[in-house]
């Protein structure tokens, strides 16, 4: 089996690359935007045909939520048209696709964890373009699934965990939002699930294409930051602030906890608690220093 992983230099792609060493019966192709521009339809089609790609894990995305508000065309290129190119190209080979999406497809007005079938209502450009990418996968005739996730972090790349650790070492105190609720997700846990699903030699149900995955539990950004300081042994004081006092270009959902029962049942997986996974990630970050 030949597996293409796009967005390979990002957090999730990097974790998949590390874990792929355990899957010796598969041949992996790791590409990022510099080595394979998924917004170029001909390039993608030729690449997939030439390398006889059977499976694609699409981790590529335009993810800068605030910049997307002023860069619609750039966000569309990757999050919409890039997805369409991958779908069309893998369709010609009868292959399968896992596409990664986001909790930002919801408006955050719920008070119960979001299920896959709940109504979507993105608040900004990023969420809108990611939802349009989902729709392309949903309406395709290929065997494909979308995995929505939230608050992703890793020992790779730039993310909230590494930013908090750096700022915590530099400052005596930090203000962090307490009225946005979701679940932190360790990219390594999501990578394990992607590899587990893509390696299954079974048919993907074409009528059940959306799945939710994050770590277990619930947290605010304030809770998340407090845990980072705790596990990082950093003495910086974290003070709670309201989202209205931290101005951003893009509006964020106030509540984006995901219900994960479907992915747990359909693929027989156990999901770690967010604090347990965070502890492991911080240990890895410290080892790499």
From TrEMBL:
InterPro entries per record: dTDP_dehydrorham_reduct (IPR005913), NAD(P)-bd_dom_sf (IPR036291), RmlD-like-bd (IPR029903)
NCBIfam families cross-referenced by the UniProt entry: rmlD
Protein name, as recorded: dTDP-4-dehydrorhamnose reductase
A GO CC term attached to the entry: cytosol
Keyword annotations: NADP, Oxidoreductase
Substrates-to-products reaction catalysed: dTDP-beta-L-rhamnose + NADP(+) = dTDP-4-dehydro-beta-L-rhamnose + NADPH + H(+)
Residue ranges occupied by any RmlD-like substrate binding domain in the UniProt entry: 1-284
EC assignment: 1.1.1.133
Keyword Oxidoreductase attributed: yes
Organism domain of life: Bacteria
GO terms for biological process, alphabetical: dTDP-rhamnose biosynthetic process
Protein family membership: Belongs to the dTDP-4-dehydrorhamnose reductase family.
Signal sequence residues: none
Protein purpose: Catalyzes the reduction of dTDP-6-deoxy-L-lyxo-4-hexulose to yield dTDP-L-rhamnose.
Gene Ontology molecular function: any one: dTDP-4-dehydrorhamnose reductase activity
Pathway: Carbohydrate biosynthesis; dTDP-L-rhamnose biosynthesis
CDD domains: dTDP_HR_like_SDR_e
């Amino acid at each position: 089996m030949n597996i293409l992983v796009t967005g390979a230099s990002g957090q999730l792609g990097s974790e998949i690359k590390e874990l792929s060493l355990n899957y010796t019966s598969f041949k992996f192709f790791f590409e990022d935007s510099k080595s394979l521009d998924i917004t170029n339809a001909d390039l993608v089609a030729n690449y997939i045909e030439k390398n006889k790609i059977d499976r694609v894990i699409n981790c590529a995305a335009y993810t800068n939520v605030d910049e997307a508000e002023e860069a619609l065309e750039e966000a569309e290129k990757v999050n919409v048209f890039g997805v369409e190119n991958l779908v069309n190209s893998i369709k010609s080979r009868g292959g399968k696709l896992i596409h990664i999406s986001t909790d930002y497809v919801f408006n955050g007005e719920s008070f119960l964890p979001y299920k896959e079938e709940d109504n979507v209502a993105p608040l900004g450009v990023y969420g809108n373009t990611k939802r349009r990418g989902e729709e392309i996968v949903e309406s395709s005739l290929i065997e494909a699934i979308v995995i929505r996730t939230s608050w992703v972090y890793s020992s790779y790349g730039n993310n909230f965990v590494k930013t908090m650790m750096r700022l915590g070492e530099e400052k005596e105190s930090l203000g962090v939002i307490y009225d946005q609720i979701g679940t932190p997700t360790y990219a390594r846990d999501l990578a394990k699930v992607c590899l587990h699903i893509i390696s299954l030699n079974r048919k993907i149900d074409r009528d059940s294409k959306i799945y939710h995955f994050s770590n277990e539990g619930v947290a605010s950004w304030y809770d998340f930051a407090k845990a980072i300081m705790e596990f990082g042994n950093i003495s910086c004081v974290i003070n709670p602030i309201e989202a209205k006092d931290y101005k951003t270009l893009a509006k964020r959902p106030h509540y984006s906890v995901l219900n994960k029962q479907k992915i747990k049942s359909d693929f027989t997986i156990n999901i770690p608690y967010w604090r347990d996974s965070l502890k492991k990630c911080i240990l890895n970050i410290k080892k790499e220093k």
